[in-house]
């Protein structure tokens, strides 16, 4: 298996520092437009894909919202998912969808999984009659 392309690989190919490469790929204005263009071209040629996990560790945000729903095959939920995903894309967020099959244990597992992945918020359509899922979100400070 080939190694993943890193900022260091781009830096070595272009002759710039890793910091300059990083700033150029983020469109920072202190990097000359010609330099940004060259770095981006090399990144594209090498097939560079940013490391979202590393970025989230630095920023504290995954830019991801989890939507936990009882039944993805329900046409109403399908409409909601499509619209919510469109709105999130406009804000540069991704949507992580989990289906609980209207099972309280699967719902609890989905919530724990989403929290463990450091999502920025949860849209929950709860299937349980008790409030334990809501309490879990409150306890963990999840919007």
Structure, described:
The protein is mostly helical. 52% of the residues lie in helices and 11% in strands. The protein contains seven helices and three strands. The chain has a three-stranded parallel beta sheet, with helices on both faces. The longest helix is centred in the middle third of the chain and has 16 residues, at 75-90. The chain is elongated and about 60 Å long. It starts with 6 loop residues before the first helix and ends with a helix. The model has no long low-confidence stretch (mean pLDDT 93).
Give the SSE layout.
Layout: H1 7-14, H2 18-25, H3 33-46, H4 52-59, E1 64-69, H5 75-90, E2 94-99, H6 104-116, E3 121-124, H7 132-139
Parallel strand pairs: 1-2, 1-3
Strand content: 5-15%
Mean pLDDT: 93
Structural class: mainly alpha
Shape: elongated
Helix and strand run: HHHHEHEHEH
Which parts are unreliable, with pLDDT below 50 for 5 consecutive residues or more? none
- The order of strands across the largest sheet is 2-1-3
Distance between the termini: 39 Å
Taking the sheet with the most strands, its summary is: 3 strands, parallel
Radius of gyration: 20 Å
- Tally of extended strands? 3
DSSP helix fraction: 40-55%
> Number of helical runs?
7
């Amino acid at each position: 298996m080939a190694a993943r392309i890193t900022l260091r690989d781009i830096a070595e190919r272009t002759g710039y520092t890793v910091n300059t490469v990083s700033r150029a790929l983020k469109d920072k204005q202190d990097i000359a437009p010609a330099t940004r263009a060259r770095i981006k071209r090399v990144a594209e040629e090498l097939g560079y894909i940013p490391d979202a996990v590393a970025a989230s560790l630095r920023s504290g945000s995954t830019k991801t919202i989890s939507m936990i729903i009882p039944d993805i095959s329900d046409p109403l939920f399908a409409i909601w998912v499509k619209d919510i995903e469109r709105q999130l894309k406009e804000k540069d967020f991704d949507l992580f969808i989990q289906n609980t099959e209207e099972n309280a244990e699967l719902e609890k597992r989905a919530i724990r999984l989403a929290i463990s992945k450091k999502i920025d918020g949860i849209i929950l359509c709860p299937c349980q009659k008790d409030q334990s899922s809501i309490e879990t979100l409150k306890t963990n400070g999840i919007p």
